[in-house]
Amino acid sequence: MPRLNGPVGFRGGGFAPRDNAWASAATLLGLVALWQLAASAGLIKSVFLPPPFAIGAALWHLAISGELWKHLSASLVRLGIGWIVGTIFGIGMGLGVGLRSAFRSPAMAVVAALFPIPKIALVPLFIIWFGIGEGSKIVTLAFGVFFPTVIATAGGVDNVQRGLIRMGQSFGLSTWTIVRSIVLPGALPAILSGFRVTSSIAIVLLVAAEMIGAERGIGAFVLSAGNLYDTDNLLAGIVVLSLLGLAVAWAIGRLERLLLAWR
Asked: Which fold has domain 72-259?
């Protein structure tokens, strides 16, 4: 057996990646810089793909004219309401699926049957049912968010150690206390990971719903700019959607750090 001549370094630090905000920002800025350089060198035709400076100028004009805030505020209201409604009902059903045997099979059969349906294809049907106003758009978002939330919540509940639940029952804790103190904290990582998926789904469905029937909203603005072949404003709207996705991802990340500090 070989003798150790010195202290052995710590070897258990693998598989623990950490976020690096500076690396993320540098990557995005580097891609934008390459895009601008390629456009300036004539490698990219501005008719098909405007350079970042032109898109920035279009965003500036939209902001100072107030048109950007008009469309963005309408989209944010729809996104917030639809996502919250779908999340609340999805978490409720996911807890039922994870905790009640009598509820599990019927509910998962419905989820398995309806989840694969493209929600964008249901937008015309929702317009027939709920009208062309805000109701159909909110229902579209809530419907798209609901099913992934059910699956994420049920999976998180299934991964909670059953020994902890049995321990709580043996101490005579009520069902609500066990759910609040044991099940929800144990399932929370999976639920928050599901939030990242459902927020992206909600943004996609928001744009689709606004393109079909809306006067205001980022989706309606992008569609109008595309019909006019106004690529500067079209890509400006797409940039706004990208920034919205980044802001939502950042907010969910902060929520994870706040609620999962105990890990």
From this structure: MetI-like fold (1.10.3720)
